[in-house]
Amino acid sequence: MLEITPTISLSEDELSERFIRAPGPGGQNVNKVETAVQLRFDAANSPNLPRAVYMRLAPIAGRRMTRDGVIVITANRFRSQERNRQDARDRLADLIRQAATPPKHRRPTKPGKAAKQRRLDSKKRRSGVKKTRGRGGIPSDG
Q: For the whole model, what pTM was predicted?
């Protein structure tokens, strides 16, 4: 069981893991041991994921989500399989946690009277600065 929030938790059978060879340096181990983890989670068909969370999850996941709604996370940061496995699960949990918090509703507001006055005053001040600028002391031959 993977606990995401107090209300959302994923069962182990919803997650599928595949172990692959990790790219990069690794010495003699690099061509022998499959330490990288590819974690797959079918978010579109998950019974434990509310529809609203799934809709917010799609843009957050970006290219990590396939067209079918499957999230694929590849973890190869560490040299041990177990640490990569935990890293992949943590990253999936973080993604879902981000999607679980609904965005705050923005109330449209208007600037106050004092703010409008300050804006107009600064515009007048700037206009005055530009008006007082001369053309320079170079006489023309014209």
A: 0.68
The mean predicted confidence, pLDDT, of the chain is 84
Do 36 and 22 meet the contact criterion of CB atoms below 8 Å apart? yes
Q: Is 130 inside any structural domain?
A: no
Rounded to whole angstroms, how far apart are CA atoms 87 and 90? 5
Q: In the chain, how many domains are there?
A: 1
Token pair, residue 88, equals 């992949």
What's the rounded Cα separation, in Å, for the pair 133 and 65?
58
Spatial separation of the C-alpha atoms in residues 44 and 16, rounded to whole Å: 15
- Each residue's pLDDT tens digit, 17-31: 888 887 776 666 667
- Rounded distance, CA 121 to CA 101, Å? 42
Secondary structure (3-state) at 12: helix
